[in-house]
Amino acid sequence: MASIKDVANLAGVAVGTVSRVINNSGAVKPVTRKKVEKAIQELNYFPNEVARNFKMQKSKMVALLLPSIWNPLFSELAYYIEDELDKEGFKLMLCNSGGKPEKELYYLEMLRQNKVAGIVGITYNDIENNVSNDIPIVSIDRHFNKKITCVTSDNYEGGRLALRELVKAGARKPAFMGSVTSVFSETMNRRKGFVREAQALGVEYVVYEEPDPIVDDNAYINEFLNRHGDVDGVFAITDMLAANYMDKARRQGIRVPEDVKVIGYDGIQDNPFFHPILSTIRQPVEEMARMTIRLLHNKIEGIPLEKQVYHIPVIFRQGETT
Amino acid sequence: MASIKDVANLAGVAVGTVSRVINNSGAVKPVTRKKVEKAIQELNYFPNEVARNFKMQKSKMVALLLPSIWNPLFSELAYYIEDELDKEGFKLMLCNSGGKPEKELYYLEMLRQNKVAGIVGITYNDIENNVSNDIPIVSIDRHFNKKITCVTSDNYEGGRLALRELVKAGARKPAFMGSVTSVFSETMNRRKGFVREAQALGVEYVVYEEPDPIVDDNAYINEFLNRHGDVDGVFAITDMLAANYMDKARRQGIRVPEDVKVIGYDGIQDNPFFHPILSTIRQPVEEMARMTIRLLHNKIEGIPLEKQVYHIPVIFRQGETT
Fold it and tell me: Which residues form the HTH lacI-type domain (chains A, B) (predicted)?
């Protein structure tokens, strides 16, 4: 089959010129263009070749699906994902799918058509049934069954760590405060680790949960304050929930950390200027982002992965609330 | 010239099947693929046709250039830009070019090759000399001369408003605290408005500036505290600078707002859980984002725009610091 070089030789021009004619890009003199087009026809230069070239350019794009880029955790994640992609010459397409899960389907279709090289991020759809084993998708935080690789912080160890730190700070009856998603999310292991560690240490504990998403944060927190006035430690499933809880608690005269120790999860505060500075289980966002892209890259290249779920270690970051 | 329909007719298959062969996407039986490839060769089906189709799909993408998506102001901006693009079926490509201005050049090249339909955002390069008048670029905050439309908050009015609010809160000697960029940025009008309003009202004022970027924030703020211990109001050019100043001031025993009233610019706090809640000039981020995309859309469609710079009104948002 004729190659682009054959076309260039026959037309007596450089390969770059042929490429510009094919791609309709850059300046090519009409007379040169004619010559190239003639050579393409004479050699039956096959359009698939062109399509493939285009695809190779197109396939240097990766789609990132997130509930919302406005969320500080997700914008940090997007920052490092773009940085890691850039090292390999990949470009990032961004989709906020929060509240509009159907937006994701477009990107799955693009992936099927090879118009993006891969998809990463937090998805709402049950994509598992629609994709094959080797399709380049890496999920963050949401663990499907077998086909889709998942990268997540070590939520279970994070839960254990939070319980231990609350106890270390003096809490005798700590509570877990969270929500239960209808589909299994790795984030639910935060509660599991918390409960397991409390049981292992013989510490009295409370689990306070409602179905996700929590529609009325205020009612949810006030109900907690009413029902569990005796807890002296709170591990909230996110930093934002921890901050919201503290705001309500303070209005009832509860002092943090004197009366209640509080630990969040995420580590969204990247400067020490706004208070309270939360004690928190810090998500290893940079490592998660870079790992996600490295795994995706392996999938694109057809390199088998060792695991289905990659747990990245977390650390406790001391703030002003324990 | 043969069309994809001619190929389909000759091969006795549907147009979609030809498309799948050309694009190498989806399942096509080997025997069918052979038939299609034969028809393509017989008809000299011209690759340019394919290229054009690809390009038309590609041009539903818009590139967003930002210093860093991690910045809360920029992640809010990206959120609304993606949302507005989605209404017209456009997809967003994201580029963090902070510290790597050369990354932008790739997207300018893509635009020249029609691989993206347009570019919006905050650019570092002096793109003006490289682009023609009608090229679909909309700049945010940075005003080039004539060719490139700019959307920005009304920085000048924001500066005036900040001065008036500081005076209203009791400040007798307010200071502007900022930085001077080497290329003109619309954000520099914040100082101009501040100074103009102080002069109009006959208020004593201070301007404290250093060249941008400020390498050592701490040294910069400490020098301000040493030099200007007598000011009783501060208008900082961003919320982050205001928060950083307050942190340093508090360590010197300066109380906000009792001793010094403070106003920032941006409005990055979107919840009331972290303190101090800044009094600030709120950027109309959503309106700026939607306006940017609507103007870009007009440029893509060849509709002439009325102005070179679009100033979106700002408001003062009262917090705990005035």
Answer: 2-56
Q: Do B86 and A103 touch (CB under 8 A)?
A: yes
Q: What single-letter amino acid sits at A297? A: H
B165-213 pLDDT per residue, tens:
999 999 999 999 998 877 778 889 999 999 999 999 999 999 999 988 8
Question: Which residues lie closer than 8 Å to B20 by C-beta, 6 or more apart?
Answer: B26, B27, B28
Q: Please report whether residue A211 resides in a domain.
A: yes
Same domain, A295 and A249: no
Q: Is the ipTM of this complex over 0.95?
A: no
CATH of the domain at B72: 3.40.50.2300
Cα separation of B261 and B321, whole Å? 6
- Chain B residues whose beta carbon lies within 8 Å of the beta carbon of residue A285: none
C-alpha–C-alpha distance, residues B210 and A66, integer Å: 38
Sheet holding A174-180, edge to edge: A206-211, A174-180, A233-236, A261-266, A279-282, A315-317
Does the distance separating the beta carbons of B47 and A22 come in below 8 Å? yes
Q: Which helix (H) or strand (E) holds B80?
A: helix B72-87
Q: Please count the structural domains in chain B.
A: 3
Domain boundary among the residues B57, B77, B94 is at: B57
Smallest Cβ distance to A51: which of B50, B82, B272?
Answer: B50
Q: Which residue has the higher pLDDT, B202 or B29?
A: B202
Minimal Cβ distance to A69: which of B24, B47, B75 = B75
pLDDT along chain A (322 residues), means of 10: 83 86 75 86 62 52 94 96 94 89 83 86 76 80 81 98 98 95 84 98 96 88 96 97 96 97 96 96 98 94 89 98 98
Smallest Cα distance from A201 to chain B, Å: 33
Mark yes or no for CB contact B93/A94 under 8 Å. yes
* pLDDT of B50: 44
